[in-house]
Amino acid sequence: MSTVGQILYTHPEDPEGVGAKITACVEACGECAQVCTVCADACLGEETVADLVACVRTDLDCADMCAVTGRAVSRRTGEEDDVLRLLLEACAEACRKCAEECERHAGEHEHCRLCAEACRRCEQACRELLAAL
């Protein structure tokens, strides 16, 4: 288990049955934010960068949404479930759109394939936590 997972499990505000989903979501958001940032940078380095403009944009939008969502989900002492639900929905949608865009380029660019996979994992983690709240 990661250090993030360990510290989340020690949190006194661990709602019964939701802790594992919170941990999975926070970790997936962190990974996805990093992967999307790297994918955007890799797209900028490709010879066909003009064909990857939409991919760079969705990568960066997704990275930002994942970073914000991961931080918000980590804060457990407040009762802002309405805001958290909105963030989780927005993050899942950003991940879905980014995955779809990266999948369009996955046959040519390995970084896009890997990014799409990370986005799908994060989308799923957000939706699972959303269902548990």
TrEMBL record:
<dbReference type="InterPro" id="IPR044543">
    <property type="entry name" value="YHJQ-like"/>
</dbReference>
<dbReference type="Pfam" id="PF03860">
    <property type="entry name" value="Csp"/>
</dbReference>
<dbReference type="InterPro" id="IPR005560">
    <property type="entry name" value="Csp_YhjQ"/>
</dbReference>
<protein>
    <submittedName>
        <fullName>Four-helix bundle copper-binding protein</fullName>
    </submittedName>
</protein>
